[in-house]
Amino acid sequence: MTIAQALKQINANKFVLPAIQREFVWGPERICKLFDSLMQGFPVGSLLFWNVEAEYSGTLRFYGFMRDYHERDNRTCPELPVIHDQDVTAILDGQQRLTALNIGLQGSMSMKKPRMRWTSDNAFPATTLYFNLTDAPEDDEEGETFHFRFHERPPEGDDIWFPVPKLLSLTKGVPMLSWLQSQGLGGEDLNRAFSRLDCLYDVINTEKHIAYFVEERQDIDRVLQIFIRMNSGGIVLSYSDLLLSIATAQWTNRDARKEVQSLVDDMNNVGNGFRFDKDLVLKAGLMLLDVQSVGFKVENFNRSNMELLEANWDSVREALVRSVQLVSDFGFDDTNLRADSALLPIAYYIHRRGLRQTYLYAQAEHEDREHIRRWLMRSFLKPSGIWGSGLDTLLTALRTIVRESAADGFPVAAIEAEMARRGKGLAFSDEEVEELCAMRYGDRRLFCLLTLLYDFVDTRNNFHIDHFYPRSRFTVARLKAEGVPDGDLERLRSQVDEVANLQLLEGGPNIEKAAKWPHDWLETRFGSSDEPGNSKTRSAYLDRHDLVDVAPGIQDFDRLYEVRRAAIQKKLVAILA
Fold first, then answer.
1. Beta bridge partners of 273
2. Residue (of 158, 115, 118) closest to 136 by Cα position
3. 3-class DSSP state of 496
4. DSSP state of 373
5. Which residues of 309-330 are buried (b: 16+ CB within 10 A; e: fewer)?
6. DSSP string computed for 85-118
7. What is the C-alpha separation between 111 and 70, in angstroms, rounded?
8. In terms of pTM, does the model score above 0.90?
9. How far apart are the C-alpha atoms of 127 and 111, rounded to whole Å?
């Protein structure tokens, strides 16, 4: 079968995806390599089709192929209407390759740009697959000969980049040559470009690159076993994809894929945003419904467990969203939540007690929320990492503790005792406290540390981690201009990034503070310290944050560093004892 023939079948919904298939997971680079392999004549593997007969097709749920992929807004394949009385071909193996061809030849990719916010629409420009027709042929280290790339528009420069989707409307021969000449090509460049474009045309329209096998039996259990055996050992299909596919096939009244993805999206849209994935949701389903093991094993996703998950989906969903709202109120987002799995004992507790939305703000529950917050922060501060190895065993044990001890509130003492028994205790040694006192800017634990130390800060607001003495003032040139001896330069440039010089400051005041020296900023924010009223407010702020009033410039940095580091160490010993 040619690629063009396969695309016609996709467009006519004759090729469909069964519910057991996962979503499209290839990135742009993988698609480009597929097209390069085809151009080089490499085999791209056989596909496995399932011929679903007309009398059976209406009993199954099918999905169409992804065409315009958007990393944030369009990651799921479209569900098709029920297909009655029609033979269809369901793709058991080869979905990623066919989808890659569909996107490359008919669609687009919208991937997030680096260093742009997830919530910004401008962070996800639509890009089309282009083929470089004129660059000099040269194999790179990975054997790539033909350069396919996704771009918003043809790159500027001497090379001619051909928009690959245009190939489907281009006629071989003279029209192809005319298009190339319209791009200003002539001579050797024209010959090379025509040769490449003609080759691509044949690859898509003439050569039969789609090799396949067909399963004819109308037995969903057999098909499911085939799917598991073909995919569970591979590295392309993640285990959570496989398990979600199994769940989707076994749910009867809901679409598991849609429900899980919708829940993931809702969780990620809480507060300043998170980056949870379906792995967490699937594990939460096992944990919240007291399935014996929370491990990602096929046997845990059997029909009875999946029926239980579907029947209790609404309560599982509510507990997970409420848990994310709670940790968002604690000040967490995707930049500082060290381990997604830490959410699961909290979600189980909320689910077990049937806690409603009022739990998030009721004054009567403040102490209980504070127990959860401090426990979570402490678990993230451990340098060894609590939520790593042995995770499934730990989660199962903590679930038992919560189930047996949560009637009167979050059982933090019993939980910490169980964690200690398993070698994951939350007591901190003197050496660990010393390590925390030297924590540096950029450490993902820093937010936890500062909010534990200064828990009066309302973390529901947008806070920045601010350098009290501005970092930008501590370049070598600026320090020398301030008269700092050469022997102190390296020490000061290191200490400016340590926790003793860092504070939590609301976004607006932090922007206003910018690169001001602390003395100048304090004068701006609180007024002159010579006035009694200003002095009192200013002193109260400094005392609460363990800061000291400082002279202009850099001269009091060492005093501030020593005084505040000692105060932080004393507090940590008390808090973490």
1. none
2. 158
3. coil
4. H
5. bbeebeebbbbbbbbbbbbbbb
6. S--EEEEEE-HHHHHHHHHHHH-EEE-PPTTS-T
7. 6
8. no
9. 8
